[in-house]
């Protein structure tokens, strides 16, 4: 097979990039190691920044997101059992976020690609990327039945996530910056109407808890746990009890329902600099991951491809390579802003085994809920700074 741009990974980054390039008449092939049903079902993030929503709309894949996504104008911060609403839209000149599950967005992008009759290979693993320093890089592929093939390209985009082959190849020649956190999230998806119209980020002596949602009938809830937490040690009843404790305020109870899905989300910050090796460019989690607090991961993936798409087009149409040369620097400025924000939100909201840090972060959270200046800073980062 041959194409102009080979895209490894059919997550939000790879599929959105393919869509942006399709609109400009650039030929792409997307290969994905997993099955279609796997990527369309897996429960991931759910908060889209205004800029992400606008980009998806402009790319012609926003109809269902606009119809079914839930627009939010504020979030709630809970400290010492008291709730404080952070009026995001009022603090940011009217900007909002939209709650819409990542897997719903993936479904929309897959449907759009297939409707355009364009190449998208599921169950096709990229085992290696070779000749990256030549003008004919190749992706070596293996299908589920063991058949091998090759995809020859002008450029390869590594959008195959944190565990993919692209990140490993780039990391070998890049600087990698990392930070581990002494916590993780136990997340559940529950078949019950959300108990509050807005997201609640709660700090409690037992640990952080988050009330989120996916639809008027589905709640998404998280509990701070340890990185090596044994999920099997938690019964559904214990999960609900702990959520009630950490999210509880007087006069309010969390509605409970069947748990549809549960998992443990690790927390790490990782950045590869530069996000490039020859003709391989990284986008999304392949290049960087952030801890989940503040919901920046998916939004960064979309921001990467918004920065990358016009640079690829200039390169392929006019042999103009300066855009590709500065892609990493431009994208990483936003990535580091998000690393700082996600790190700050994570530390401020989680109970910390370091007792000094724990006290300091409690003081910070109390300051935030009492200061409009501090709230404005969180709000503008939360709704998303301008793309690029
Ligand atoms: C969700 C995840 C986040 O990391 C966050 O900060 C808010 C909401 C969610 O999955 O709904």
Features of the shown structure:
single chain; 388 residues; alpha+beta; seven-stranded mixed sheet; globular; binds 3,4-dihydroxybenzoic acid
Indicate the topology.
Elements: E1 5-8, H1 12-22, E2 28-31, H2 36-41, E3 47-49, H3 50-58, H4 63-68, E4 70-72, E5 75-79, E6 82-86, H5 88-91, E7 97-99, H6 102-115, E8 120-121, E9 124-130, E10 138-143, E11 148-152, E12 155-158, H7 165-173, E13 175-180, E14 184-190, E15 200-203, E16 209-215, E17 218-225, H8 236-247, E18 259-265, E19 268-273, E20 276-277, E21 280-282, E22 288-289, H9 297-318, H10 322-349, H11 355-368, H12 372-383
Parallel strand pairs: 1-2, 1-12, 2-8, 5-15, 12-21
Antiparallel strand pairs: 3-7, 4-7, 5-6, 9-10, 10-11, 13-19, 14-17, 14-18, 15-16, 16-17, 19-22, 20-21
Helix pairs in contact: 1-6, 1-9, 9-10
The structure holds 3,4-dihydroxybenzoic acid (DHB).
Describe, in short, the structure shown.
This protein has helices spanning 12-22, 36-41, 50-58, 63-68, 88-91, 102-115, 165-173, 236-247, 297-318, 322-349, 355-368, 372-383, and strands spanning 5-8, 28-31, 47-49, 70-72, 75-79, 82-86, 97-99, 120-121, 124-130, 138-143, 148-152, 155-158, 175-180, 184-190, 200-203, 209-215, 218-225, 259-265, 268-273, 276-277, 280-282, 288-289. The protein is an alpha+beta fold and 388 residues long.
